[in-house]
Design brief:
The structure is a homodimer of 212-residue chains.
Chain A: H1 3-21, H2 28-34, H3 41-46, H4 49-82, H5 88-104, H6 109-119, H7 126-149, H8 155-174, H9 192-208
Helix pairs in contact in A: 1-2, 1-4, 1-6, 4-5, 4-7, 5-6, 5-7, 5-9, 6-8, 8-9
Chain A binds a DNA duplex (30 and 30 nucleotides) through residues 1-3, 6, 27-29, 37-45, 48-49.
Chain lengths: 212, 212
DNA sequence: ACCTGATTCAAACGAATGTTTAAATCATAT
DNA sequence: ATATGATTTAAACATTCGTTTGAATCAGGT
């Protein structure tokens, strides 16, 4: 059993428990038990509980953001070459689609998505600063692209609507399991494409609407 | 200094700290310090930390839901008497307006709103079950009214869109302070009415949109 | 003034937390 | 085989946690 085995098992277990119970409600003992590792392994491999959280976020957020960044760049290059402006729907899709696709990818990534969803709900938390360090450049470019795609919407209103969309998305990210208020006749199993377009139907309409 | 003084001070302090740092990251010692009460006061007046959380939620959620319920009933009676169906905007307003109004009311209610916002982000948490006990009847009626107001939207799609709206709303509830990603030139000070209508512009457009 | 019940207080409880230690074990290259 | 560095292990570390205790203090009625 090599070093990376233990490290990975700890990362997976912690990702799962942090997502399910939250950072503070999860003990290192419960993590190492689930990972079948010794209690001291966390501090040996990661240094501290907080650094473990950082490693969890970095592991998946870095490649995810590279995909988002690549799709956004490709879209902007394409529209610029064609002399048009990107649609709000296409801009948002570069952010949302890789997110929901990663969740369906398995091997614990659904836990990561839920963890990020929780993180967004704790503005003052430890996870938020780690998260924002990875997100800030991309978020700035995304806002810029949305501003370009919606010339009729003021920066003021645009900001709030982006806020609303992020709220919706983080909620969807958190709730990957059947909820108590979900009616029995509502199916929650959809393909990634269905999920993405269902979300974009909602989000784009809200982004584009003229003031009433 | 009477009994209710200490009880109220503990409720206010705990509401503030639970909202800011989360339930598990807040200790009874930090609560009683902020409330200028003895450590044992929490267990004397409330029995346990968990019962304190329950008291916090009950204190404000009960009257808030009565207002929401009253406004929804009034709307449904009015439209039924007129032989029409309620608009989606009016139905959503009966839920959203009392919420954002309470936040602006002061005396710590903004902490409660943020706490509920956090609660909605912890599906498996202790607060969620306490919260849902108070919310389930109203949520069922709200969903029914929305179904009535949007005859063109299937139950399946409607459920998801309500999900999205709740995500947006809970996000707005959490973020009552200026965020790091908020551009400098974006004002976050609005009247309740402005806030409500800005939110409803977004949410109603997403609820009503035809599939693309 | 005195009694009674409610409230406050300092102190301590056992349990659980994140972290550290030092010895034991493993893997690998010479 | 042996030496070396990486990893694992059991045990203990000092804190902090929620809760409990029993005495002290308070308020109000007789």
């Amino acid at each position: 059993m090599s070093q990376t085995d233990t490290k990975q098992r700890i990362l997976d277990a912690a990702e799962h428990l942090f997502a399910r119970d939250g950072y503070h409600a999860t003990s290192l003992r419960s993590i190492t038990t689930e990972a079948e590792a010794n209690l001291a392994a966390v501090n040996y491999h990661f240094g501290s509980k907080e650094s473990l959280l950082e490693a969890i976020i970095d592991r998946r957020l870095r490649p995810l953001n590279q995909i988002r960044q690549g799709q956004l760049d490709a879209l902007l290059q394409k529209t610029e070459a064609a002399g048009t402006i990107p649609s709000c729907r296409d801009v948002l899709r570069t952010f949302v689609e890789p997110t929901l696709r990663l969740r369906k990818q398995g091997s614990g990534s659904e836990n990561f998505i839920a963890l990020i969803g929780r993180t967004l709900a704790e503005p003052q938390g430890i996870a938020m600063s780690i998260f924002m360090r990875n997100m800030e450049p991309l978020l700035a470019r995304l806002f810029q692209a949305l501003n370009l795609s919606l010339p009729g919407v003021s920066r003021q209103v645009l900001f709030w609507r982006v806020h609303f969309v992020f709220g919706s998305l983080s909620h969807v990210m958190r709730c990957h399991e059947r909820h108590s208020i979900v009616p029995e006749d509502v199916s929650i199993d959809m393909s990634v494409e269905e999920e993405v377009e269902l979300f974009l139907d909602f989000a784009v309409a809200g982004m584009e609407v003229k003031k009433q």
